[in-house]
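Re-running Ig-like receptor 1 to confirm reproducibility after the cluster update. Everything else is unchanged from the original entry.
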Amino acid sequence: MLVSVILLYIAYTLQNRRILASEAERVDYPRISVIPSLYIDIGSNVTIQCQGTKQEDKFILYKNGAPLIEGPLVGQTANFYLQDARKTDAGNYFCMRKSDARITNHKTITVKGADDTVQIWALPSTNISVGGNLTILCQRAEQGDTFVLYKDEDIVSEQEPAGGIAQFHLYHVQAKNAGIYYCLRKSSQSKVKFSNQIHVTIEGADDTVQIWALPSTNISVGGNLTILCQRAEQGDTFVLYKDEDIVSEQEPAGAIAQFHIYHVQPKDTGPYYCLRKSSQSDFELSDQIDIIIEGADDTVQIWALPSTNISVGGNLTILCQRAEQGDTFVLYKDEDIVSEQEPAGAIAQFHIYHVQPKDTGPYYCLRKSSQSDFELSDQIDIIIEGTGNEVSRQNTDYTISNTVRLALAGLLLTVTILLATENCHTKKSQLQNEELSHYHYNIYSIQC
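Result of re-run:
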């Protein structure tokens, strides 16, 4: 009994420590504040405060993604002063704590009276790793302007934002994205103004194998997933792995291999990575991404191949699936049973060959388990494109053609019989008129 009490006390103490540690970690994130306001008049003073919990910490203040100044804590606050604010002080600010590299939220300071100044900055920073996502922002105090983003002297993109900030997103950046960027503002009064320049640096070697997932690493049961593998050079072979098993292999025409996984199920959850094989027999692995399939395991899925829209006369396959095996599936159209199947695996395939307009309608699956449980899938609407008149008209044409052929054959046979009969009667008359030379013939031997 005493041992049980001691064990319970120890477990309670450890649990409290975990809770306290979690609370401490949660409240230990640094914070940023701007005094007196995010909107300041030109020539005024502003204080940016970075707040932490440890006095020995130091903070770095960033402006538009680039480090601006470093300062120590006084108490639990590091104060950064912007005196006699100028147009160039407008921008996006955040603090980074040096001890653990944690950053605060972002604060955008607007300097009033600097309406004609075009600001540019990069998030999360002007220094970004290969494969990361970069956002370049162009801002002006007034709305309704058009912004053009330039890299070196080439146009990257053009945008007319709903507000005063245009956001240009660069996904999965590569070494070629490094360079000098700036914004051009075009107003409705045909005025043109340029921002300052920022220098974007892409960190990481060009031969790094990148991997990412579209639309996301988190996807719902039944959705479609694409995993992409990329390297800067072309001509490589990519192998996609899940855990330690090969999923697929591909030699793309370009530098990106796209691996499609349709109608994902919980079994598709797991870590994925790419292996690159070059023509020089070099091998290189990408980082790992974790795919999470969201949705209950007992959901009955239904889908159609090749599509829910299919032409008259085509072949259609409707598939019903659940994560477990051993169930019976019943396919319904409207309220009528189409077919029933107990598949060997977890997927039942119902084939409908040479579909006709009558096959149009809503279809759904009913799952019957060995425990007498029932569950319905969602409904899919099958659309048969084409009226089917082409087939009927073709059959009608064949019938008319055959009738004409039979009529012509009958007419030809009748004419042949009439000609043969006439020829026979002519010969009989000739024989009756011959008295001497044909006396030994019996004219009645001629039968017509």
